[in-house]
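Sequence, please.
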């Protein structure tokens, strides 16, 4: 019995030593490399979608993570439903012999120039060149858009009261009504190279370029034309 034990002890020690050596030789993926790849990916993707400056911060990964070192370049893709501004998430994967994947979260801030109001505007007030100015702003939460060219907003109306410094977005302004239902309008038409005009009554509201139904006052005939300016409609006869 003593001889058997003497023989087994070196074997057990050798086995344990081999196991420990194999375990210690396992290489793990650097968590910093994962975060760096995620940051570079998100920065490039966000910059493609904006003319402004982009800042990307990555939330720290759990330092207890043990992921086998990937033997090929990591694969990155936006997480389903993730946005390229504000809180976001990217899927980082390894597709080597020992595959793994995880989601890395972070935040994307976007800065650029946007039009803001110079003064307080009342609801329905029409914007002129003196009412707006271009200012550098944090655009991160302007998911539905903004304006950076004055010609995009001039002549439009405020949809609600707007304080000074308000960033103009598509839901804060709307095209100004040039014609209201019941207004008397001038119908302009070209017949045989000759331009003629007649008076009519607008049957619906109209903005610049919109199709509008008009009843001619003399013939009571209803025609359709395009709003070209305040109380002027061009028809094709």
């Amino acid at each position: 019995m003593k001889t058997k034990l003497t023989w087994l002890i070196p074997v057990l020690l050798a086995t344990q030593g081999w196991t420990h050596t194999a375990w210690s030789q396992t290489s793990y993926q650097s968590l910093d490399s994962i975060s760096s790849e995620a940051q570079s990916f998100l920065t490039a993707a966000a910059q493609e979608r904006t003319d402004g400056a982009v800042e990307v911060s990555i939330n720290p990964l759990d330092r207890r993570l043990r992921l086998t070192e990937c033997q090929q370049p990591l694969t990155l893709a936006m997480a389903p439903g993730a946005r390229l501004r504000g809180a976001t998430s990217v899927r980082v994967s390894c597709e080597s012999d020992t595959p793994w994947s995880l989601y890395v979260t972070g935040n994307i801030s976007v800065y650029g120039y946007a039009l803001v109001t110079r003064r307080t505007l009342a609801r329905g007030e029409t914007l002129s060149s003196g009412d707006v100015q271009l200012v550098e702003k944090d655009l991160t939460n302007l998911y539905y858009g903004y304006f950076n060219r004055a010609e995009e907003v001039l002549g439009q109306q405020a949809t609600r009261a707007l304080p000074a410094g308000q960033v103009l977005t598509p839901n804060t302004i709307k095209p100004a009504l040039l014609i209201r239902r019941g207004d008397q309008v001038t119908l302009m038409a070209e017949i045989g190279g000759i331009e003629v005009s007649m008076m009519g009554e607008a049957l619906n509201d109209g903005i610049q370029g919109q199709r509008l139904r008009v009843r001619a006052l003399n013939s009571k005939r209803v025609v359709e034309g395009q709003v070209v300016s305040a109380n002027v409609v061009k028809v094709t006869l």
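The longest strand covers residues 100-117.
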